Amino acid sequence: MTVYLDNAATTPMLPEAAAAMTAQFARVGNPSSLHASGRDARRTVEESRERIAAALGCRPGEVVFTSGGTESDNLAIKGLAWAREDASRDLVVSTAIEHHAVLDPLHWLETTGGARVYLMPVDRHGRLEIDALREVLAREPERVGLVSVMWANNEVGTVQPVADVVAMAHEHGITVHTDAVQAIGQVPVGFAGCGVDAMTVSGHKLGGPFGIGALVVRRELVPTPLLHGGGQERDIRSGTLDTPAIVGFAVACEVAVRNQRAEAERVSSLRDELVRRVLERVPDAVYNGDPVHRLPGNAHFSFPGAEGDALLMLLDAQGVECSTGSACNAGVPQASHVLLAMGASDADARSSLRFTLGHETTRADVEALVAAIGPAVERARAAGLAGSRT
Amino acid sequence: MKVLAAMSGGVDSAVAAARAAEAGHEVTGIHLALSRNPQSYRTGARGCCTIEDSNDARRAADVIGIPFYIWDLSDRFHDDVVEDFMSEYAAGRTPNPCLRCNEKIKFAAVLDRALALGFDAVATGHYAQLRTGADGLTELHRAVDAGKDQSYVLGVLTQEQLAHSVFPLGDTPKSAVRAEAARRGLQVAAKPDSHDICFISDGDTGGWLGDKLAERGLDVNRGGDIIDVDSGDVLGHHEGSWRFTVGQRKGLRIGTPAADGRPRYVLDIEPVSGTVTVGSRERLVIDGLDCIRPLWCGTAPREPLICTVQLRAHGAEHRAVLTPTDESFTVALLDGAEGVAPGQACVVYDGTRVVGSGTIASTRSS
Asked: Last residue of some domain: B279, B309, B324?
């Protein structure tokens, strides 16, 4: 039995999405071809684009298909920095808890002289302090070209005050990007409603397929392309459109958004039970993240004295799948930059574990974790002590 | 048994893990991340510590059908192996980091953690054999393949550690292990062996040490004289005594030929003054050793012991008599040995059985 509690890493495909996608595999036609098969494919792509637009509250023409979240973030961060008309707006303001798909392009821009970067700190719950942002923007508002703040954090699930960020940035005429990969289908997300200028979306985080995503970007903005070629997507992104993936993405997006409210209620109640019972079993565990502004499916803990990777292995052996939430770069686990930014010590950051619930999670999954967590923590703590022996 | 297989990404540890699994053990593969930043330590494909190696290990685990994880031991490795390596060289000695890694990391930090996590043993791809002796203790023996035998680098393991170790390759020649890897569909079957020190990427130990010691601001003599042992003449200068090892002939860069026209060898390194003493090959011959930090695989010898000793990895065996003293032991070599560097391990054998080991503190010639 597999108890899958890692939905923030990837979600199981929604059956509707898998079916729609599978049907597409039998068909031929490049959406850019001019003949009947091509027109059919194009029609399928455009219908999908409209469904996504309807689900996300944007115009169809604002949906630029990409290969996924990382490409969309890169396109927004680098593409908008390269395309800026006012050369003096060379400062990008973001947060210390962004995904690496945002942080690394920012770092690259900074080191290659493409932009100056300022990363806002967050509070101990992982939430951007809006007053601090106000001060930073007021310092040199005419120099800021872009503000990028994620909708919700992938590790600790903290939902950010994106609407406030937008209002504040727009006062100064500053463009706003948000990485909403974790948010779609979890919390209400409306592109036009919140007023952001660019938004990252990914297929496989909302019940759709891998390898497809979108940057929703206002028509007035033309990020410089990362990929040059056929110019398929508004000349902002080149590459043959992947019709089956786009169909699967569209269906998943539609279903996820349609079910968002009911699922959020169901999943958050399971999550609350999970948290309560894990804390019963391990009373000194620390529940991380924001108690209020939080994704419904996220439960993130530190287990002092136990190492996250030892816990992960022990739970995995019991069929319980979760994540340490750390970027596993080069196979060497790093302490999470998110937890460090929230003020955790290196040791606390390394003792953490993320459980993320999704559309297939049931009460039985919670039961299985609750049954396994106590002995696993006990054992991992013993190993932690063994590891510190010299 | 629940067995934790340490998988370096090489062919030996992959086959060892496969054999452990085939023997019916419940095997979990782990790759040890020993370098905090792999790029800074090593970028080549051989040896351990690269992203490529962890990927190779992962693929091998997939093929064998066992779970696989990466354990980050980089802090411990740095503190216990790399730091020790630097300070030993700075002190004019020649350490063996592989022994140190086995003693402090693989069969200590990793084994302790494994046992605490519910494993019964750690399996590695070392070429050595374990047997149960008449006294019920676990004995460590040389591998069948004399050319690949790695009992020397395991000579630091105690009874407790040996009792929780598994060496599935000790009874097999290396060539057969490679063939078996190919038969099992392991992609690493033809991967080259690692030879040099895993954390020194280009194999230039002297250059690496120079950089690291300077970075750390260690107070080492960055230059000194090369002196002839007989005449006391200064034959040349060098840029750091850590670049030398007792027995070394190449790279001395002393222009003047010796009076007898024969090559000269490093006989002694004095790190404080930086003086490196050289002399003829005969002067390298020693017949006595003082060893510290004794570690016994089983029962510690209390009486003088007729034995053989090995004084470097893949080095020759020397007939010897070991005399234990408090916290140390001395060794009388019956035939003499040359090029014995303080800091290396003296591993003591009784036939094929490893009795134990000590670190060579000093050498004598009578």
From this structure: B279
